[in-house]
Amino acid sequence: MASVELRGLTKRYGNTAVVDNVSLQIEHGHLVCLLGPSGCGKTTTLRLIAGFVEPSEGEIRVGDKLISSPAHTVPPERRQMSMIFQSYALWPHMTVAENIVYGLKLRKIDRATIGQKLDAILATTKLAALAERYPGELSGGQQQRVALARALIVEPETLLLDEPLSNLDANLREEMRFEVRRLHDEYRYTTVYVTHDQSEAMTTADLIAVMNLGKIEQAGSPEDIYDRPQSEFVARFIGSSNVIKGRGLDATHIDFAGVPLQCVGATIVAGANTPVSIRPHDIALSAAPPQQFENVVPATVVRQVFLGGSRDYMVEAKDGTQLRVVTAAEANIPQGSSVWLHLPSGRCRALAS
Ligand code: ADP
Q1: How many domains is the chain built from?
Q2: What whole-number distance in Å separates Cα of residue 168 and Cα of residue 344?
Q3: Region 258-277 average pLDDT
């Protein structure tokens, strides 16, 4: 096992940098998710790490070994990495056991050792009862586990996963997220996991690198990314925040719809148009004026929907800004009502403008 480091990594196709000056330190034994919308450069970054693509600029190191730079690229088969593709790529004419040991046979490992390793991996991936079946006789989730077992049995230094759960239906996908994390906790391979699904990233990752337009917008723990987004893109992409805008009053306040709003996060510049994020469930909504006066904004209910466990409101402040607010299901305030919003200062996060 080893750490993986990307330094100023850039890949251009023609004049377009699809991976643009990406730097990331992936600690030994950690699982890092590259998370972002389709086309933001996740798969290209993964293929650069695997060695299928050569960088235009920058370098990749595993431990203290340089494995990729514009001048020098170690071929994929000499990187001690296992990659799992969306399609799993299982051999249809081989049984589960034969598929799993294929990589070990290529490495000319003796039969007894292969047998021991196979038994161990069949047990941890819960495939022992299916060892003699063919891929066509397995469910999607079982095929996924075979792909994982086949990647893990060769004991790679690094495991690379490209949207590994995207072919599964929603329920199974949720279950397999926990399975991926459980196997990671057991084997602790340094893992890079590509996904566009934020819940998948939150469940599996030690570190999430949020990508947009070829760049890493922010890298941090799931808590960091969710609670302390630094840009409008991250705030909206992770957990769909409201992003309101106002004029900076001083280092910690903006003017929002005529109300001085105290914020945390980035230092606010007086006079600058400043975006501030706040989560829908962090806003308190009341039909009567609240006790406190600070960070209280009058608004009107535009619409509301009963969702069983909660109620989802769209409200509009005096300046026309619309905000989503999620409340307890009992808080039933009709459309058109005047309401007061309390935006707790610790939850109003000023973003880079
Ligand atoms: P993601 O995995 O985030 O969906 P990709 O890394 O697959 O994104 O692609 C990023 C961008 O690079 C896309 O706009 C894609 O069309 C472009 N791209 C990827 N591979 C090539 C290639 N071989 N030639 C030209 N453009 C490419």
Answers
A1: 2
A2: 40
A3: 96
